[in-house]
Amino acid sequence: MSDIEKKLASLSKLNGLMTGAQWKEKATEKAEEESKALSQGGFEIDSCVPGEVHGSEDFGFYLARQDFPLDTQHGNLTLGDGLNVEGRHISLSAADDELADFDPRKAVFIDTETTGLMGGTGTVAFLIGVGYFSDDVFRLDQCFMRDYDDEEPMLEYLDALFKNADTVVSFNGKSFDIPLMRTRFITNRVPYRLEGKLHFDLVHASRRFWKQRLGDCSLGNIEQEIMGIQRHGDVPSYMIPQLWLDYVYSRDARELKGVFYHHQMDILSLAALTGHLSQCIDQPDGEGFEHHEDRLSLMRIHFKQKKYTEVLQLSDKLLSELTPKGLRRECLHMCAMAAKRSDAWVSMETFWKKCLTEFPRDISARIELAKHYEHRAKDLPKAAKLCEDALAYIETRVQLTTNCYEHPQQKSLQHRFDRIKKKLS
Question: CA within 20 to 30 Å of 11's CA: 22, 27, 119, 167, which one?
């Protein structure tokens, strides 16, 4: 043996390095141990996820229950935030007056993991999670099917859990989770207690508040951008159905730990996000929302629900800070229309004039002011001038357009101009 070989051998012994043959032998031993453990049920769900069989082995399912103290941190929120909720805020977020009496202590926060993402009769919810406030904790029951035989006892357990609930909270549950669960309950001839209960679907509320700024209003993106959550050890949603099917075939539940974590995080986020929305809305002048786009979204929600007084209250501070032209223009339009529908004619005229000062080519502002001067202020010369300027601008745009183009407001505006000229003569 040469000096170099001797040195390499001594270094290998010193640092505990293994040869290729030793690595192969160790890998073989590990594979044999895993195979033996798998054959003896060593990787079943109870050895991978803390929980217990609820019911008997012949008629039962696997229940993983956790109690979270209310001060449990969830991103930059706490689970206790889910209790600091006012029904009028939930009603506003959902655009549903029936939710005005929303009580978080009588709500169930629901999410499912299924064998397919398209729904349909053959799709099964193999993991149904229900979160609810109980005493001084937020309790999470994750009901898991070890095989298809577990579905009926699992649904019977959920039936008892749903009896005392007044409201369902979900994320896209109206379109997916709730219809799927209804199908499974009916198929198994188990009473479906959620039929007719009030439903607060956070996906629609999230889009109303954050769609303009974020674009992507998936729960994962809401968690990152709004709640300050970074998940670790998560499993992508598209992989989850196959992971359960693999488990049913192999009885190896090790990969399901990530599925339970993903599912748990979804439901905890429902509770925290519900409280966060209410607390943001509760702040005066929209200050609960940090970004101007979100404050404008809040104003838009009030406007669509015909709460014009609230729109005008929010406008003062927002217009004093808002600088992007597109957002300012929308805000001024909204304020002017809110004032009009509140019969606040002076405020309406002020908003339209401001809009015309900042955006001289705004046709809508000219038309609305022309209506005002013709019918209310009785200032026909001003009304005629506004119509004439608007028509001149439209005519210029038409001439500069290469294809055949007609402005949608040109005919009505011309008709108004002709009528005003007739009155003047």
Answer: 27
